[in-house]
Structure formats: C-alpha cells, structure tokens
UniProtKB/TrEMBL annotation:
Pfam families: Aminotran_5 (PF00266). It comes from Geodia barretti. One of its GO terms (molecular function) is pyridoxal phosphate binding. One of its GO terms (biological process) is cysteine metabolic process. InterPro entries: Aminotrans_V_dom, Aminotrans_V_PyrdxlP_BS, Cys_dSase_SufS, Cysteine_dSase, PyrdxlP-dep_Trfase, PyrdxlP-dep_Trfase_major, PyrdxlP-dep_Trfase_small. It is an enzyme of class 2 (transferase). This is cysteine desulfurase. Keywords: Pyridoxal phosphate, Transferase.
Length: 374
C-alpha cells in the first residue's frame, strides 16, 4: 500500500520490481554459497565461482553473444559505457576525430563521450530526431565521416519509448568500418535482443531494469575488440602476473573485472534472466504493446494532455505534459492515489530542450502492469 491505496507501479524505466525468485536467489547465495570467486580451491569458493560463471553464460545466451568471454560484468549501463569510452575510446579516438550519438540519449551516453572528446580534442556529433521522436537515418548517414571513430546510440529511449532502427544504424556504420555501441538499458527488458543479428560491436545494459538486483549489469563486446582494448581498472583478478617492474594482464573477460565483483548480484541477474525467459520476451513485448496502445488511446482522449514521443516503433513508455499543470504536480497528485510515475527530465535534458519542455510525466510499463487497478 502507498498512501493507503494499492500501489500502481508505473516507474519501471527507472527500475523494475523484483520477482520473489530473484530475492530468494540473493538470500540463498549468501546463505549457502557466499565465498570469493576464482580464488579458492575450497568447495564453497568453487560453488560460488560456478554460480557466477553460470550467470555469465545466461547473459551470453540472453543476448545471443557468440562466446561467454564476450560478457563483462559491470555495475550497470553507466559503467559499461564509461568502460568503453575510457579503453576503446582513449585508444582509438584522437584530435579532430568524431563520435556520433543521437538527440535522444540518456546523460550516461552523452557525458562519458564529452569527457573523452574534451581530453582528446575530438568532437561529438548529434543525430537529430523528428517531432515524433524518431531517429533520422538520412541525417545520420550524412554525419558519418572518415573522422567518425565510434557510433553510440540508445536502442530504446527511456524518455520517449522510441525503438531505434539499430540494424540499419549498424549496417551504415559498418559499411564505413565504424564500430557501434548500443545502450540497451531500456530495450533489454522489453524486446528480444540478438547481438549477432543486430551486428553491434558493444551492447550495454543494467540488471535492475531487467527485474534483477541493483549494482550489476553487463557489457557485451566483440572478442577481437575486447582483446585489443587496454584494461579499465587495475587490481586483483585482472592480472596474470605482477612484479614491481611489470604486470601481465589476464585474458577477457577477467581483464575487465578488477577486484571482487558483485557476485551475488550477478547470480541474481542470472535468475532474473531465467524468469523473463520463462515468460518469453516475445510474450512480454506483445503484452506490453497492447497495454501501451490502450494507455496511448486513453491519454489521447484527454484534451489537455500532449504525448511526447509518438514514434511508429516504440515500446512501454507514455511520456506526456498537461496544459496548465506542472509535471511535478501531476506526479504528486498521482502519488496521493498510490500511482508511481516519474516526473522530470529523465536524465535527458537535451531531449527535453528539443521538445521545448522542462520535464514530462512518464508512465513506464512492465509485464506485471494491468489495465485495471488491482
Ligand atoms: C537509456 C538509458 N541509458 C542509460 C541508463 C543508465 O542506467 P544505470 O543508471 O543503471 O547505469 C538509463 C537509466 O535510466 C537509461 O534509461
């Protein structure tokens, strides 16, 4: 109950609620397997290592990556993008080079590239969007140049719901030999992902938006790229041998997993993946699309409401503003009814500027939402 009303949780794009099996998996891990991984010969350590590595394989299969060594456990999407910026980016981007993002990026897919550009004297190029919130492929193609070193685009926008044409984005970049990173923070919970079919070079997501625990996520990277990249952080686990004169680094994925990782979180993420696999990602997408169509219709019937983000291909997000009502007031009134929505700029301030609004109200859907109030 929230404010004496049954909770209606419509803030799934910020973070999702956790199935009981995920919560149980965390408790079970700490009660029966808790130990450090890759380090001990004792049975408990081997058990923990097996569970941790099984979770990696679950992520690999979930994304359809070719090999489990292409999966790096990170803290979440933000850390995954920073890892690529600070390793691949630092190694490959130089003065006068360009990185392409889009007008609908989350701050975590803007700021790491800005920091890199500042350090290297490189430039950030931004693909514009139309009034519906759709990625403009023609404009994108025009921005691709011999100076472009990386394209980094959101798969599904957290503020608009737009699902981007990622296969075409990758194809156009690859035709010019440019690698592509996709920010899958939102998409991963709503659409089936196949990194080999999409063809992207990096794919990043956070576990907590996929019904898993906070503090864990994954970076998929093509093995040849990861092999060639320098490590992100130094410390235990990422080394093969250390002397005071010289350190030899470990192979992937360990090269990028310095220090003790979020072992319990990774195991919990694996169980969350089992959970959505049992439901079926296609079923989740179909159900949410039906809810989205219903919500869009009902909101469109309210004259004072203006929907922000009306792309033809979109999922799970209803972002809107209301005439003569500040989004925060709308959010507060809904909260009094036990309805949790997000109000604000959704970590996408340049996108709010594009639509000429300071903030929106955002209802974001998950498979456990219903038409009726339960
Ligand atoms: C599209 C998108 N990218 C990146 C992020 C950052 O994710 P995290 O805070 O889990 O690192 C979010 C979170 O809201 C997001 O929606």
């Amino acid at each position: 109950m929230i404010n004496d009303r049954p909770l209606v949780y419509l803030d799934n794009a910020a973070t999702s609620q956790k199935p009981q099996v995920v919560i149980d998996a965390l408790v079970n891990y700490y009660m029966t397997e808790n130990s450090n991984v890759h380090r001990g010969v004792h049975t408990l350590s081997q058990r923990a290592t097996d569970s941790y590595e099984e979770a990696r394989v679950k992520v690999q299969r979930f994304l359809n990556a070719a090999d489990d060594k292409e999966i790096i456990f990170v803290r979440g999407t933000t850390e995954g993008i920073n890892l690529v910026a600070q390793t691949y980016g630092r190694q490959n981007v130089g003065e006068g080079d360009e990185i392409i993002i889009s007008a609908m990026e989350h701050h975590s897919n803007i700021v790491p590239w800005q920091m890199l550009c500042q350090e290297k004297g490189a430039h950030l190029k931004v693909v514009p969007i139309n009034d519906e919130g759709e990625f403009l492929l023609d404009e994108y193609e025009n921005l691709l140049s011999p100076r472009t070193k990386l394209v980094s685009i959101v798969h599904q926008s957290n503020a608009l719901g737009t699902i981007n044409p990622v296969e075409q984005i990758v194809e156009l970049a690859h035709a010019r030999g440019i690698p592509v990173l996709l920010d899958g923070a939102q998409a991963v919970a709503h659409v089936p992902i196949d990194v080999q079919r999409i063809g992207c070079d990096f794919y990043v997501f956070s576990g907590h938006k996929l019904y898993g625990p906070t503090g864990v996520g994954a970076l998929y990277g093509r093995a040849d790229l990861l092999d060639a990249m320098p490590p992100y952080q130094g410390g235990g686990e990422m080394i093969r041998s250390v002397t005071f004169e010289k350190t030899l680094y470990n192979v992937i994925p360990n090269k990028f997993e310095a220090g003790t990782q979020n072992i319990a979180g990774s195991v919990g993420l694996g169980v969350a993946i089992d959970y959505v696999n049992n439901l079926g990602m296609d079923n989740i997408a179909a159900y949410e699309n039906e809810l989205l169509a219903y919500g869009t219709k009902r909101l469109s019937e309210i004259e004072a409401v203006r929907l922000i983000g009306t792309a033809r291909h979109k999922g799970s997000i209803l972002s809107f503003v209301m005439e003569n009502a500040h989004p925060h007031d709308v959010g507060t009134i809904l909260d009094a009814e036990g309805i949790a929505v997000r109000t604000g700029h959704h970590c996408a301030q340049p996108l709010m500027d594009r639509f000429g609004v300071p903030a929106t109200v955002r209802a974001s859907l998950a498979f456990y939402n219903t038409r009726e109030r339960n």
